[in-house]
Design a protein that fits this description.
Layout lengths: L1 H7 L3 H8 L3 H9 L8 H13 L2 E4 L11 E4 L6 H5 L3
Antiparallel strand pairs: 1-2
């Protein structure tokens, strides 16, 4: 989780705000050894916030060039004005 936050350039307070959870919740989640422990609703909020920030989480058995778990940056989406403009 710390790596995902770092890739997005977010500090703990900013991620907490984007996810709608408290700063101590983010701190507890990052202090977890191994698997991040939290309520499912809280995990979903944090994952969605990281997704909106452009981070793709890679679970077990998901394709990744390096294999295994990890995080990677998603390709940037075109700006709204660029989507409709085709020349």
């Amino acid at each position: 989780m710390r790596a995902a936050r770092a890739l997005a350039g977010l500090d703990q307070k900013t991620l907490a705000g984007l996810a709608g959870v408290s700063l101590p919740t983010i701190q507890r989640m990052e202090a977890s050894d191994g698997v991040v422990r939290a309520m499912v609703d809280t995990l979903v909020k944090v994952i969605e916030a990281l997704d909106r920030a452009g981070v793709e989480l890679i679970g077990d058995d998901q394709h990744s060039e390096g294999g295994g778990r990890g995080v990677r940056l998603k390709l940037p989406s075109p700006a709204p004005q660029e989507r409709g403009a085709r020349r």
